[in-house]
Amino acid sequence: MSSSQSPKSPKGPESPRSPASHGGKAASPEPSPAPPAIVALSAEEIREAGILPGAHWTEQPIEQVDDDGASTIGSIASTTASLTSTIFEYRTVHGRTYHGEIGNAESWEPNDQRHVDSLDIFHHTFMLSLGDKLFLSPLEKNKIHKVLDVGTGTGLWAIDFADEFPNAEVIGTDVSPIQPSWVPPNVKFELDDCNREWTWNEDSFDFVHLRMLLGVVSNWSDIFRNAFRCARSGGYVESMVSSAFFRSDDGSVKKGSALEQWHSIFWEGGKKLGRTFRVLEDDLQKKAMEEAGFVDIAVKDIKIPLGAWPEDKKLAEIGLWWKMSLESDLEGYLNYLCNALLGWTTEETAAYCAHVRKEWNDPNIHSYVWLRVVYGRKP
């Protein structure tokens, strides 16, 4: 653990069972039934969840806060700007395409260029959070021959892993073809909905990687059951998720603040979608891994600041990157949940986003979330 204080894991709603999913490559399974139509939360449900109405945020004045932490981070900001420019140039060279839904997939995240850019920045942010590593599992390079990256997104993890393991075949799957077309020869991308029964053959992969599948997975037990079946004996499966619960050790995240409201929006949205955001709070990764039969399961909790408020320069750098990653498309992360599920107008969502940014820029608000990495070995 990165801190003596660990995140609490209150009991949360159970995820509904989902039909078995796609894998590599046996006969295609029967198509899964379509998910129920999403209906916005009622006013009573919103009140019971403790979510303030959208109009609340349009009525609150926005006073700009000078970020005194800027002087503390100095060179971090210039390094960030330089690296961000490099990331965007890289993605521009490789281009992007967009695709509709496949299977039962219904993403709460957009796949337009602005969001793709945000996901690319997040790839660097996640690596920084893991100590400049792509994974934490104790992999032996000479034993890694075939790798699966589930929910690969823009594909940067798969590409970087392939560069680090040039003798391994790396397959990235996602519901949208937003990955670059020019990739290392040992990388390929496939369209796939991870919630359907995997059709990969048994004992196919030496490493299965699942990163930030929040609000994506219908049933975590099914995901790890599929991963266990498709992993080779001795192979590892690793999952990383973050909490949506903004905390502070000094009480600076106040009740009724924009950051205090954040988790309720995502938790209630996840319940309505049938794909939970309470993965960390309900300890779903470890429970599902144990259920599937994995051994040597390790859990690593990492305290992630939001913003450059920590005195420690490295933590300030991590906090700055998390803040920048989210702010690069904050509306994109919130629009679906706020508009479709809470019934907020575009103006109300934008006002809420403005209050979130204001609080992240306030050096007196010391907010953080927990990031959890869980990995296990197939015996």
From TrEMBL:
A GO molecular-function annotation: methyltransferase activity
Matches recorded under Gene3D superfamilies: Vaccinia Virus protein VP39
Protein's recorded name: S-adenosyl-L-methionine-dependent methyltransferase
InterPro entries membership: SAM-dependent_MTases_sf
Positions of transmembrane segments: none
Protein family membership: Belongs to the methyltransferase superfamily. LaeA methyltransferase family.
Annotated region described as Disordered, given as residue ranges: 1-37
SUPFAM superfamilies the record matches: S-adenosyl-L-methionine-dependent methyltransferases
